[in-house]
Write a structure and sequence with these properties.
2 domains; Immunoglobulin-like; two-stranded parallel sheet
Length: about 170
Amino acid sequence: MTSSPSRIAQATAAAALAIACSVGFAACTQDPARLPPTIGGGVNAEVGEQDPVKVLNLMLITRDGTTGFLEGALSTTGEDTLVSVSGELVDADNNPTGTPLVFEGGPTPVVTKQLSKLSVGNPYLVSGEIPVGLTVRTTLVFTHAGEVTLDVPIVDGNNVDYATVTPQPTNL
């Protein structure tokens, strides 16, 4: 039994339509509006081997370009402490400027299975040239987890998304 050219054409058209539909429907599942929401413009990292510390949504917020504070959260399954923070401005070409920023604050305890917010307790206040839109190559040092260096974005604290975020020291 031989197939006529019209039956072959119909089968080919049906196969092409099936492929087109499967590609089209698969693309529908990648709709960004259907993806789980992610937190704002900070950076994330994981530091250490045993009971690693997770650094979540780390950013430097400034309202005037000369002072600011670190915002973000820390989490671990063990116990740890953020003991120091240092950093320097990185220019638009991703080159360190050589001018260190001054970080004052801390230490920040990282409590088991709880979020430790960096802007609460003994917040890290930052001073120096802090232009919005650039990054600060920032090194975080933990008692047990070790250290990590991240390019932390500098965000405008006058932006409506960050206008209500302020450091909340508990030692006053």
